[in-house]
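Much of the work behind modern protein science is quiet bookkeeping, done one molecule at a time. The protein below has been through that process, and both of its lines are reproduced in full.


***
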Amino acid sequence: MGLYQFRLPDIGEGVAEAEIVAWHVQPGDEVKEDQSLVDVMTDKATVDMTSPVDGKIIAVHGAVGEMLAVGGVLVELEVEGEGNVSDAAPAGPPAAAPTLPTPSPSTTPEPVPEPAMAPAARTAAFAARKIGQAPLAAPATRRRAHELGIALQYVPGTGPGGRITPGDLDAYIASGGAAGPSGDSRYAARPEVNETRIIGMRRKIAERMQETKRRVPHIGYVEECDLTQLEALRSDLNANREDGQPKLTLLPFFIRALTRALPDFPQINAHFDDDDGILTEFAGVHVGIATQTSSGLMVPVVRHAETLDLWACADELARLSAAARDGSATRDELSGSTITITSLGTLGGISSTPIINRPEVAIIGPNKVTERPVVQGSFIAVRKMMNLSSSFDHRIVDGYDAARFVQQVKRLLEHPALLFMD
């Protein structure tokens, strides 16, 4: 029998380490070649590491959430034959095996001290006061409760007629706040505290957002758009689409508007390397689509969107969104965007403040479409309106150019015939 050490391979250009996000084996398991061993994450792509050989797991290295350098030992296996480790170079002591899976840790709450008032007295006090009845208390007691932020209707009173005494207020404070009127559990104190270690995708998102906000001075711009004509066109195209054609959402129209507007603003369809001070402008439009998944936010990329018609764009959006949500999106499909669209759809709200997907210099955030009364000349008409929120890297994009760009996108959306004119 021999010892085989499986090391973390180089899984991408420039990647020096990866985070362990899930173990599928533990010491003592028998595994076959190509069987899943562990999931690791680099950037925003999760990679499944499979066993290169048949064998028995002797040790696994690294707990979930730990970072491992490329070339570091992930798994040690006992295999038939000599393995890949000579007897003259024995492996170091194996790291402790991670527990699979580990529930989110939680702190055990300290016991809440019992209220000074006896349960029977508390029940009787509440019984004497009907729900909705104003509590009785002296002005000094009311003032003290107000200063402490305590609602007196939930404080049991032991005085005559259920009057709340200063001692009742002290007992309520000592109890940490007990159940509300008639023991209503909706008003019970909730002392539990849960602590969860942030790992995997959520940690990557947190690190990227923090780094972007630290390094990029954002400028925000919000413009109102009338999408009445665009929505009419979209409804007609969906009603008359051919078999096999996807249903059109608003996103293909937004992407087409970007592909028409960006040639006039090349500094917006760009990456800024602030370490070297280099701005790289792109002729092709590669649109990142912020997509919510069960693992967190991912940004699959519609490449060369300028070459796609509405239907092809809708097909590509559906394919990429499905791949991101089921975890099958590749590293190439999750990188290389030159500008990003982030949309919450019907949850889009009135306005938003999107964070730039660094090293890009701009991000566009369509908000919710709502019907609102709008003044048109001497008349008031109900129109389908939407706010278009955007953020720009103020080091590269001046406020004037940001406004001009958004106004150009607005013009294309409000007059959709322009989207198809040369």
Summary: The longest helix spans residues 310-326. The chain has three domains: 2-79, 119-188, 200-420. Residues 2-79 form a domain with the OB fold (Dihydrolipoamide Acetyltransferase, E2P) fold (CATH 2.40.50.100).
